[in-house]
């Protein structure tokens, strides 16, 4: 019997427990996650392969961006066209960025034209903790959840008023500062934060690029976030959540004195009401809107300015009904997407998606069960998805899991309507995933192994010559033609020995385009991480190694990107009760490596910071 199971509390305030330091299974204080089932659940009781990155882990890591933080997690690879302010792609188990869903406090973000989130504009300083769930979750979250879901949680106020602040400086004249205040009083809860980071950067391209310019490509990132709520009676809460991220970044477009740059703005606002309608019935209503606005300035001429703005407005009503210790979840959702551009006109600048879903989570002794079904209807037709999972505890420390699920990715506005490229007849990509896992956790030791097999059909590719055969598609088009297979094994382990914690993870995968027989672009067959951490009370220090095998930069597998290994060091020291100092040294060996062909990556970088109020 798993002695560390918790029952779901009536109120959603239990989500605060998710800040506890996670392990894979048995732990003194259970970590609570919500993304795997859309409701609070002990991490030990999740059947889906799930990672929780706590506030403490984020603070200790001294990561320069959310991309740097994600790169150190199992099952994740990244590609980036230059430094921290440039375009980045996040792969989950080999699935592309537009095959994964990104949420901020339950609100979907991302561009409706590319289908992907703008990772470089998401502010790390506004984040409290992160949950990553691997595997198909379309039956819970709808379109695009083929590889998994990454949910970002901003800070939430609790207890007495608390002020935190930090300021730091590093290589490339990087300077950053942030401040936050949070707390709660007589039913009111508040958390407000703001931050700014600016860097001179380095040249984003190398001499082999046709866009090469030797000048430095800096960036200026600003952010603000707020969560305000009021519990006007037991189990009755209303609130609002806001997040703003703005990024102005320079990029290379060949030798030119003009300040070539792009500006990205992400804005998210949500209003919600959580209500205990009956002792066993929890209702959650949410109205939200996100904007992903992007502009580029490639020359001084008017033709050098372009913009693509997307807006998503969503309405959802989720009902969690307790049936003894089981949970029946019923969900209604509606999402409206709108696109505004200059320079060209989309055939259809908006679309609606209407969804209905149900799931059931149960436990019987040592056994866990969950099942979910969902139907999404939009202009691309109706799609039904489903999933089933089973888990069994051999002991409180050792468990096994197995699951099967279907998923789909909706064609983007570009793939449907972009002049000379899209076609309204394009269909969604479809996925079918099976996986099994084994997990162990006890007395400072954790270990897990997961095998997954995710087959994709109707994969959308850029095909040239275009089979439509008309003059407007002379440069190729988006077309449902390929099949792909994402399969692999993920291993993770950690061991605590006194004040030291040693951890490692490794992925062996085969992300393959089955139609062409080629390896999917920018995805390796092996990658992993090693880390050693020391916690001496006042002193904390650690070292990590990021490893990746070789990859190809293109779908044809013509250009090979060599494998690499990076060593990073970090340390923090508590000066007194309120003040602490932190230092991080990335890429200690000053190693040149490639994440994208002809694009530069950071050499050795040092960053130091002084912090107030962090625990």
Automatic annotation (TrEMBL):
<dbReference type="InterPro" id="IPR000531">
    <property type="entry name" value="Beta-barrel_TonB"/>
</dbReference>
<dbReference type="InterPro" id="IPR012910">
    <property type="entry name" value="Plug_dom"/>
</dbReference>
<feature type="domain" description="TonB-dependent receptor plug">
    <location>
        <begin position="44"/>
        <end position="149"/>
    </location>
</feature>
<keyword id="KW-0798">TonB box</keyword>
<comment type="similarity">
    <text>Belongs to the TonB-dependent receptor family.</text>
</comment>
<dbReference type="InterPro" id="IPR039426">
    <property type="entry name" value="TonB-dep_rcpt-like"/>
</dbReference>
<feature type="domain" description="TonB-dependent receptor-like beta-barrel">
    <location>
        <begin position="185"/>
        <end position="588"/>
    </location>
</feature>
<dbReference type="InterPro" id="IPR037066">
    <property type="entry name" value="Plug_dom_sf"/>
</dbReference>
<keyword id="KW-0675">Receptor</keyword>
<dbReference type="InterPro" id="IPR036942">
    <property type="entry name" value="Beta-barrel_TonB_sf"/>
</dbReference>
<keyword id="KW-0998">Cell outer membrane</keyword>
<feature type="signal peptide">
    <location>
        <begin position="1"/>
        <end position="26"/>
    </location>
</feature>
<keyword id="KW-0472">Membrane</keyword>
<dbReference type="Pfam" id="PF07715">
    <property type="entry name" value="Plug"/>
</dbReference>
<keyword id="KW-0732">Signal</keyword>
<keyword id="KW-0406">Ion transport</keyword>
<keyword id="KW-0813">Transport</keyword>
<protein>
    <submittedName>
        <fullName>TonB-dependent receptor</fullName>
    </submittedName>
</protein>
<feature type="region of interest" description="Disordered">
    <location>
        <begin position="198"/>
        <end position="217"/>
    </location>
</feature>
<dbReference type="Pfam" id="PF00593">
    <property type="entry name" value="TonB_dep_Rec_b-barrel"/>
</dbReference>
<keyword id="KW-1134">Transmembrane beta strand</keyword>
<keyword id="KW-0812">Transmembrane</keyword>
């Amino acid at each position: 019997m798993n002695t560390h199971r918790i029952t779901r509390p009536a109120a959603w305030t239990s989500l605060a427990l998710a800040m506890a330091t996670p392990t894979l299974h048995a732990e003194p204080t259970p970590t609570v996650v919500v993304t795997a089932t859309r409701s609070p659940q002990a991490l030990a009781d999740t059947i889906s392969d799930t990672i929780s990155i706590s506030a403490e882990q984020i603070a200790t890591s001294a990561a320069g961006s959310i991309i740097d933080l994600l790169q150190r997690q199992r099952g994740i690879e990244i590609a980036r066209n230059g430094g921290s302010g440039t375009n980045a792609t996040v792969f989950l188990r080999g699935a592309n960025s537009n095959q994964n869903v990104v949420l901020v406090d339950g609100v979907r973000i991302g561009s409706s034209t590319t289908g992907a989130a703008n990772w470089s504009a998401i502010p790390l300083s506004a984040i409290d903790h992160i949950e990553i769930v691997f595997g198909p979750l379309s039956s819970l979250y709808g379109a695009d959840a083929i590889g998994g879901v990454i949910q970002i949680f901003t800070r939430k106020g609790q207890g007495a008023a608390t002020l935190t602040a930090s300021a730091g400086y590093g290589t490339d004249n990087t300077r950053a500062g942030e401040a936050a205040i949070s707390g709660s009083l007589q039913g009111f809860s508040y958390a407000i934060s703001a931050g700014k980071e600016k860097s001179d950067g380095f040249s984003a391209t190398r001499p082999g690029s046709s866009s090469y310019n030797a000048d430095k490509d800096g960036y200026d990132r600003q952010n603000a976030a707020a969560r305000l709520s009021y519990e006007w009676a037991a189990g009755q809460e209303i609130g609002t959540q806001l997040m703003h991220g703005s990024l102005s970044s320079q990029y290379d477009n060949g030798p030119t004195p003009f300040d070539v740059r792009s500006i990205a703005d992400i804005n998210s606002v949500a209003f919600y009401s959580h209500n205990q309608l009956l002792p066993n019935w929890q209702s959650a209503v949410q109205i939200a809107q996100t904007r992903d606005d992007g502009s580029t300035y490639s020359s001084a001429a008017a033709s050098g300015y372009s913009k693509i703005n997307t807006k998503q407005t969503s309405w959802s009503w989720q009902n969690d009904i307790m049936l003894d210790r089981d949970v029946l979840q019923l969900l209604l959702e509606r999402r409206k997407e709108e696109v505004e551009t200059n320079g060209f006109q989309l055939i259809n600048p908006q679309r609606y998606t209407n969804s209905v879903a149900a799931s059931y989570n149960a436990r019987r002794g040592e056994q866990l069960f969950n099942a979910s079904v969902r139907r999404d209807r939009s202009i691309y037709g109706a799609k039904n998805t489903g999933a089933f999972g089973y888990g069994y505890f051999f002991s409180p420390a050792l468990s096994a899991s197995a699951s099967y699920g279907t998923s789909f990715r909706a064609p983007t506005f570009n793939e449907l309507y972009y002049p000379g490229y899209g076609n309204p007849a394009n269909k969604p990509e479809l996925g079918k995933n099976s996986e099994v896992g084994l997990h162990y956790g006890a007395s400072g030791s954790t270990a897990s192994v997961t095998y997954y097999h995710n087959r994709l059909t109707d994969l959308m590719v850029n095909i040239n010559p275009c089979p439509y055969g008309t003059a407007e598609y002379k440069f190729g088009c988006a077309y449902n033609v390929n099949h792909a297979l994402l399969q692999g094994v993920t291993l993770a382990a950690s061991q605590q020995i006194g004040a030291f914690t040693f951890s490692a993870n490794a992925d062996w995968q085969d992300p393959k385009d089955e139609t062409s027989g080629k390896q999917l672009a920018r995805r390796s067959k092996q990658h992993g991480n090693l880390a050693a951490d020391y916690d001496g009370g006042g002193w904390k220090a650690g070292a990590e190694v990021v490893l990746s095998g070789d990859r190809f930069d293109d779908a044809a597998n013509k250009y090979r990107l060599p494998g690499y290994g990076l060593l990073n060091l970090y340390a923090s020291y508590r000066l007194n009760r309120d003040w602490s100092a932190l230092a991080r040294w990335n890429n200690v060996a000053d190693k040149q490596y490639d994440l994208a062909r002809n694009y530069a990556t950071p050499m050795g970088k040092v960053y130091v910071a002084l912090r107030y109020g962090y625990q």
